[in-house]
Every structure is written in structure tokens, then in C-alpha cells.
Amino acid sequence: MRQCFNITLVTPEGERTITAGSDQHIWEAAAAAGVRLPAMCHMGHCLTCAGKLEGPGEFDQSDARQYLPQDRAAGYILLCTAKPRSDLRIRTHRQRAMRRFRLDAGLPAPYAGV
Ligand code: FES
Predict the structure, then answer these.
(1) pLDDT of residue 114
(2) Strand ranges for 31-101 from DSSP E
């Protein structure tokens, strides 16, 4: 059964709370609500859309091509391919931080040189 969740996006321009369905990628729900977020591959690979959880919450990242247990443990989320499973509060525009995190952990970090 489809559920809807409140997603608070903490962007550089301020906070916006949107609604996202459990069958919906958060990036798409944000775009539909008029919130433009970075993205490139839309496949859960390049890390351009990275966000970071602020607080507890659950999401399904199984649509991502590469999302690692270490990413989850550190609170990172790939918004292009994440479906909510609870209300969430997410700081957006974390691509540089996530690439740095991956590099520091010896993990793949696409486009970390740019
Ligand atoms: S846009 Fe590439 S991982 Fe989300």
C-alpha cells in the first residue's frame, strides 16, 4: 500500500517540506514541488544528488546502482533513487562531502576530481 511521508529538505536557500510517496524517488517529488536539486546520472551512481540525514529515518535505496552500507551508516542518501519509508529531514547539496567521505574510506567516488 502506498504511503506518503513528509520530507524536509534543508537546502542552501532554506528549508522546504514536501510530500513524497513510498513509491516515489525523493528527487522527483522535490522537482514536482518546485525544488530544484542537483543531479546528473539519476541512477544512484555519480553522487551528485547526495544528501545527508539530519535525524532518524528510513528509506529504500535499492534502486541505486551503487549505494554502500558505509554510506548508510554515515547518513548519506542518494536522492535520485531513494524512496521514503518514514518522514525524513535531509540536508541537500552534500555531493562534495559524500565524495570526500568515500575517498577517505577508500571507496569508489565517481567525479571526485571535479
Ligand atoms: S544523480 Fe547520480 S547518484 Fe543521484
Answers:
(1) 58
(2) 50-53, 59-60, 76-78, 83-84, 88-91
